[in-house]
Design brief:
The chain has 129 residues and is of the alpha+beta class. It has one domain. The protein has 4 helices and 4 strands. Strand 1 and strand 2 form a beta hairpin. Helix 2 packs antiparallel against helix 4.
Length: 129
């Protein structure tokens, strides 16, 4: 769920800053009833690092839920990726491709909400990393 101002602020940042390929706000995690239980959450550090290798390392070696894949992405950058494919974890691959192409900006205000619930597809997967 995105809140008012989310799209405008993300697009504004991408229009001003050519080095950014993706813009996401900080997020609030909500339960099945809509109550916030994690506030102002961001899980992946240094998405805006000038170092490609640092960005890539953080997006591939940090345990995260790939919330950034739901951010606003520069079309010209997205067209250089394989997009989301039909296998488990392809959202991580997409994010890895994007951070090689450019930086990720996380807006300071939590303008997005993600629902965590027992029916989430990720909960049906058992992975060992």
């Amino acid at each position: 769920m995105i809140l008012p101002g989310y799209i405008e602020k993300c697009v504004e940042l991408l229009e001003k800053e050519d080095s950014y390929v993706l813009c996401q706000s900080r997020i609030n995690i909500i339960d099945h009833e809509g109550h916030i239980f994690k506030n102002n959450f961001i899980h992946i550090p240094d998405g805006d690092s000038s170092s490609k290798s640092k960005r890539f390392k953080n997006y591939t070696h940090t345990d995260h839920f790939c919330y950034d894949v739901f951010g606003v992405v520069r079309k010209s950058s997205l067209s250089k990726t394989k997009l989301i494919e039909s296998y488990i974890g392809s959202d991580r691959v997409l994010l890895s491709e994007l951070v090689i192409l450019g930086k990720v900006k996380h807006l300071e205000d939590p303008l997005a909400r993600f629902r965590s619930h027992e029916e989430q597809s990720i909960r049906a997967i058992t992975c060992v990393f």
